[in-house]
Amino acid sequence: MLEKLAALKQSFESDLAQARSGRQLSLLRDRYLGRKGGRLTLMMKGLKSVAVDDRKEVGRSLNQLKARIETAIETARQRIESESTRQESAGITLDVTLPGKRRALGHLHPLTRVRRDIEEIFYSIGYSVADGPEIETTYYNFEALNIPEDHPARDQGDTFYLSENLLLRTHTSPVQIRTMKRLRPPLRIICPGTVYRRDNPDATHSPVFQQIEGLAVDEHLTFRDFKGTMEYFLKAFFSEGTRVRFRPSYFGFTEPSAEVDISCTFCAGSRCRVCKQTGWIEVLGAGMVDPEVFRHVGIDSERHIGFAFGAGIERFAMIKYGVDNIQNFYQNDLRFLRQF
Description:
Layout: H1 2-18, H2 22-33, H3 39-45, H4 52-90, H5 110-123, E1 128-129, E2 135-137, H6 138-141, E3 166-168, H7 173-182, E4 187-196, E5 208-218, H8 223-237, E6 244-251, E7 254-263, E8 280-289, H9 291-297, E9 305-312, H10 313-321, H11 334-337
Helix pairs in contact: 1-4, 2-4, 5-10, 7-9
């Protein structure tokens, strides 16, 4: 048996010297170590026929040869792969003096920029950010905000209903209700987020858009505090020279209510197509919180006063960046997004 092992080792060395590729090495491994017909494998299976006195030494020699074959094949494989790589790269010339390829970096979406700018302004005056679910109940989205069942805003033509009592929120005001139920005054929060309405897409409307609302509740707040906060916010966001005006309006959850306008940023108030020859652009709705809303959340309206406001983030972005079509923000056209 030992003589056969010596002959097998010599045969393997000869065959290994002729192997020039990975495939030839695989075939060589099968020839000697294959599980069924490998030459060394068959010799190891015949170990039981060796005399008992010689079995230990023969077994040790068989294992040594097996380890030798495995190591030699792996070493040859690495050498062949290394040589192949060297030959492939031999014809490539690398000029280390050439500038590298600059990798394009992403940047914030314009709506994200505007949202963060608004948040930073309110952070600076003591407000915090509150969040809530986008799937809401009719109670939080309507009843608690003093919007009765016969109100047009609750019509199925304006609202995405998921069931009789569940819907995709039409504004972020439900976050204000949830926060007032959870926390007690004084409160100063803003509520940015995505909202949904059954609007046909056009230059100024989208069925999905972003809104940011704010709420302040405390003792001794007045309409002057409300006006001062709105003026500070709008001047900080647009420019110090921005003029602000308040027009009486109606909202179910504020009383009194106001529409807030700014002087046209495109014509500086001298009248143009954008401001429809008025010199003013409407930017948000706001007002003093109706006592009925406080009743739903268990806040004493005799002691506490609040004001709330809401604005579309897309509208602020369109005014700030001079964009005339809201759809541009959602089409993911890199030619548009790279401008910001």
